[in-house]
């Protein structure tokens, strides 16, 4: 018998994620971070022992994010699942306990949302009877009001009219340097990788700046002036 609940892992492949996010000026550093994030997330999902439905950029259908994630959920439910736990790959501190809590809650008719510091979400649950294609296409995806928008939609058909909020966490989105003030809040070992990448790209940037400066200065080393009578 198919499990009533499953995980929708909605994430780009590491290569596509690195290219799309452009966290730093170093393509290699971006690829390394994307690979680490993907592997860590997938490891946590496997440990949950729930079925995993992977929808990466090769399988996503739609002209924009709103269409792609709505179509992914529609496909997920068409495979016989009743409850979806939706996660991406850009939250380094996602834990198996977060997934287990969300699965337990949705089994009792209670939705769960894990908010990010920038107003987005790193995990949310939704049941098939709550899912409405037209309304989900209109949610504030990829914005700092997604948490509020999603919370409002999920309580629309929630008998308890309540949502359990998981601990707020940080997602790795945009310029890595913006994370400097909040790096201490990241518990994952990926924090060390981020620091290494930032240090590496800083050195590259410094060396590049110095090279350009020297090239523009066109400094010519000369010896002492020579007397015409010497």
Key descriptive features of the protein:
alpha/beta; 43% helix; 230 residues; 6-stranded mixed sheet; disordered C terminus; 7 helices
Would you kindly provide a written description of the structure presented here, covering whatever features stand out?
The chain has helices at 14-21, 27-47, 65-78, 96-107, 133-137, 146-156, 190-217; strands spanning 5-10, 52-55, 83-87, 111-116, 121-127, 163-169. The chain has 230 residues and is an alpha/beta fold. The protein has a 6-stranded mixed β-sheet with strand order 2-1-3-5-4-6, with helices on both faces. Helix 1 (14-21) crosses helix 2 (27-47) and helix 2 packs antiparallel against helix 7 (190-217). The chain is globular, with a radius of gyration of 24 Å. The model is unreliable at 202-215 and 217-228 (pLDDT under 50).
CATH topology name: Spore Coat Polysaccharide Biosynthesis Protein SpsA, Chain A
Beta-strand segment tally: 6
Radius of gyration: 24 Å
Strand line-up of the largest beta sheet? 2-1-3-5-4-6
Q: What is the first-to-last residue Cα distance?
A: 102 Å
In the residues, how many domains can be counted?
1
- The appropriate CATH architecture is Alpha-Beta Complex
Average pLDDT works out at 85
The helix-strand sequence is EHHEHEHEEHHEH
Tell me the number of helical segments per DSSP (H or I, 4 or more residues long): 7
* Morphology call: globular
Low-confidence stretches: 202-215, 217-228
Q: Largest sheet, if any?
A: 6 strands, mixed
Computed structural class = alpha/beta
What's the CATH H-level superfamily name? Spore Coat Polysaccharide Biosynthesis Protein SpsA, Chain A
Helix content: 40-55%
Q: Mind telling me the CATH class?
A: Alpha Beta
Percent range for β-strand residues: 15-25%
């Amino acid at each position: 018998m198919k499990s009533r609940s499953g995980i929708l892992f909605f994430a780009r492949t590491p290569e596509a994620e690195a290219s799309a996010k452009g966290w730093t000026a170093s393509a290699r550093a971006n690829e390394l971070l994307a690979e680490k994030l993907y592997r860590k997330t997938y490891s946590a999902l496997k440990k949950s022992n729930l079925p995993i439905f992977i929808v990466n950029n090769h399988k996503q259908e739609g002209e924009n994010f709103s269409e792609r994630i709505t179509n992914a959920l529609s496909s997920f439910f068409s495979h016989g699942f009743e409850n979806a736990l939706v996660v991406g790959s850009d939250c380094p501190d996602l834990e198996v306990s977060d997934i287990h809590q969300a699965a337990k809650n949705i089994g009792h008719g209670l939705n769960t949302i894990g908010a990010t510091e920038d107003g987005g979400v790193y995990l949310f649950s939704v049941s098939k009877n709550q899912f409405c294609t037209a309304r989900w296409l209109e949610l504030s995806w990829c914005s700092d009001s997604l948490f509020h928008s999603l919370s409002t939609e999920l309580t629309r058909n929630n008998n308890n009219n309540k949502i359990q909020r998981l601990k707020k966490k940080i997602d790795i989105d945009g310029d890595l340097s913006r994370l400097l003030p909040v790096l201490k809040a990241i518990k994952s070992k990926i924090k060390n990788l981020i620091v290494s990448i930032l240090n590496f790209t800083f050195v590259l940037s410094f060396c590049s700046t110095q090279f350009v400066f020297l090239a523009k200065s066109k400094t010519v080393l000369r010896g002492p002036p020579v007397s015409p009578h010497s």
